[in-house]
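WARN retry 2 of 3 for item q-0093 after timeout on previous attempt; input resubmitted unchanged.
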Amino acid sequence: MALFQRGGRGEKRFVVVFDIGSGSIGGAFVGIEAGKLPEIIFTTRRDIPFQEKLNFQRFLDSMIKTLGEMFVLMQKVGGGVRVDQAYCVLASPWYASQTRLIRYNQGTPFTVTEKALEKLIQEEVTLFRNSKLFARSKVGDTSPEIMESKNVQIKLNGYEVREPYGKKATELEVSVYISMIPASIRASITDVITKFWRVSNVHFSSFSLMAFDAIRGIFPDERSFLFMDISGEVTDISLTKDNVLLESISFPAGKNLLIRALVKEMKNTPALAVSELELYSEHRSTPEHALQVEKVLGETTKEWQVFFDDALSRFAREFPIPRTIFYTADDNITQWFERAIAETNFVRFSQEGGTFVVRSLGNTFLNKFVHILEPDFQDPFLAIEAIFVNKLSSV
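OK item q-0093 returned
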């Protein structure tokens, strides 16, 4: 296909990226070429069937089915193109994570080596496997597996360093982000991917880590911030302080909170409720329907804010809340979300002065960091993931 013409042997390669959230699944073909922005050649997104009463097993089955349906479309578009690697990026509730701090010190200076650092990290991963969080993450009879472990910061004698190997120190601190996934979910996703693409390995990662890494690269002066991902069933909030992704909190309230309220208030089907939300966000509702949607927005804003307030309180017990907040959300709920944020009194959670800054990681902003082949292929979640994959591939 013309979409996948290569500039020359070895110059460009293609990867496939899958974004698995709690409300929808996205897929993208991305062209990777050294020294250039990642090129998003094609994207598609399908909603996971809405459930008025959420049941996790039905939810999981629907996600896997939706994934397969999306793959059929992508294979038709790709025309059998060879992809070098597959990247699968998960949002809540499909994984859990924790950042752990490793401290090592000696009375006399020691030399930092890659082998010794890797040994320390693997020892910490083993401790994580034996933790209560790991044990609580079973799904039915299935135990979890480590999905990724990434060193996000190294300090020698109290100072952050990017290139530690060969340097001498008496104190070493390593912040390691570790995520896990139920083995059954990983196997189900891998099975459906490998039915459609022959890849040697499927790389699994968490959206929180990818967003953290992208923000840190784009805004190097923002060392402390909140990142919020408002998806279908869940809102994820991650707190970064001093360039370390410290902690993430999820709560069961996202876009579908609005949909369920609209179904109840307007006595509509879920499909019609989504349509009403779209019309409202585009200022095309009838006056009567706009009033109904406004009423639902007001009620659900208060409900969402209770969860949000609790999450901020939990963070604030250990850390002041940073004054910079980044977020991703579907276009049709951005207005609702920004209103909910604007009505929140952040100052009582923070020791920092000044006005709180809320930044949307939307298409307009992210288009500076990716090349989009067609305007219809814009998708902020897949753009963030393409930025991360491009960086990973260039290392």
